Amino acid sequence: MAKARQFEGSMVALVTPFRNGKIDRKALRGLLDFHLRSGTDVLIPCGTTGESATMSHDEHRRLMSIVVEYVDGRAPVICGAGSNNTEEALGLVRYARRAKADGVLVVTPYYNKPTQEGLYRHYQYLASKVDIPMVLYNVPGRTGVSLSPHTVARLAKIDTVVAVKEASGDLGQVDEILSLCDITVLSGDDGLTFPMMAIGARGVISVTANIVPIKVRAMVHRALKGDMVGARALHQEMYELAKVLFVESNPIPVKTALGMMRKIKPELRLPLCAMTKANQQKLRKVLKTLGVIQ
After folding, report:
1. Given 120, 165, 215, 255, the catalytic residue
2. Maximum Cα–Cα distance across the chain
3. Which residues pair with residue 166 across a beta bridge?
4. Given pLDDT bands bounded at 50, 70 and 90, which one contains residue 1?
5. Would you kindly state where each structural domain of the chain is located, as residue ranges?
């Protein structure tokens, strides 16, 4: 029997605005309103783009609660809840469940470099302890380890494992996952969203959607409806933006862009630091071309 598709479409990997070292609640509410008005399908705080790696666990939990409470059911919220320590990840997943998040996004344990069996046991353990929809997150460029398609297929047999965010940059991996199991594949790489959807992915967890949520949603929904010509046109329109948003480590460029749009103060936490002047110029030029800023 086919597994129900709980999450698909245009999902934003939400930035966390800071002001004077603290979460900027006013700016955060403004970003959430921006996405709710723009029709973003799912909101995802506390991920890589949300700088979860520089937040304390207390801040991480507080951010989950702020977003879930403010959104108040107007769109699904999937909270980032990963760690390289399985028990720490369990604490975050349990909190997301208590906060009434609609799901959790759980990155592969970074730095430890577990085996495929270790990866399987990590996710299986979390799923056995907390009844909440789980999205696996495979981003080997960040973590140093990659979920194999066969491990994804093993995990897909668990009822609460509903999707995988694939950010390996490997279309062959996506093809193999889809050939092995029934799981929703989501793009974790904006530049590859269109080709990934052409071979069966069902949406994107997007950095670019922070800047142009209406365009990202339109592209994804055209692809879901089979309008690949229209989807490709929007993919090409946004391609330079998707590239420049990764010219330096994410989320440096996207927070800089939101600063240029006057939506947030583009404050980062060390070891992340301000974007170089040369790259800021490149970013500004792309934003002007798209009509995002004057």
Report:
1. 165
2. 54
3. 138, 187
4. very low
5. 9-226
Q: Topology of domain 9-226, per CATH?
A: TIM Barrel (3.20.20)
Q: How many CB atoms lie within 10 A of CB 125?
A: 14
Q: Is 137 a catalytic residue?
A: yes
* Averaged pLDDT score across all residues of the chain: 96
List C-alpha distances in Å: 290 to 13, 132, 265, 283. Answer: 20, 39, 21, 11
DSSP-assigned letters across all residues of 255-275? HHHHHHTTSS-B---TTS-PP
Spatial separation of the C-alpha atoms in residues 215 and 248, rounded to whole Å = 23
Active-site residue, 165 included:
yes
Q: Kindly report the three-state secondary structure assignment for every residue of 205-244.
A: EECHHHCCHHHHHHHHHHHHCCCHHHHHHHHHHHHHHHHH
Could you give the dihedral angle defined by the CA atoms of residues 260, 141, 139 and 194, in that order, rounded to the nearest 10 degrees? 60
- Which of the residues 95, 120, 123, 137 is marked catalytic? 137
The tokens of 266 are what?
């583009």
Q: Please calculate the CA angle 123-157-122 and round it to the nearest 5 degrees.
A: 10
Q: Sort strands 22-23 and 18-19 into parallel, antiparallel or unpaired.
A: antiparallel
pTM: 0.95
Under DSSP, is residue 14 helix (H, G, I), strand (E, B) or coil? coil
- The C-alpha atoms of residue 160 and residue 17 are separated, in whole angstroms, by 31
pLDDT band at 91 (very low <50, low <70, confident <90, very high): very high
pLDDT in tens, 212-261: 999 999 999 999 999 999 999 999 999 999 999 999 999 999 999 999 99
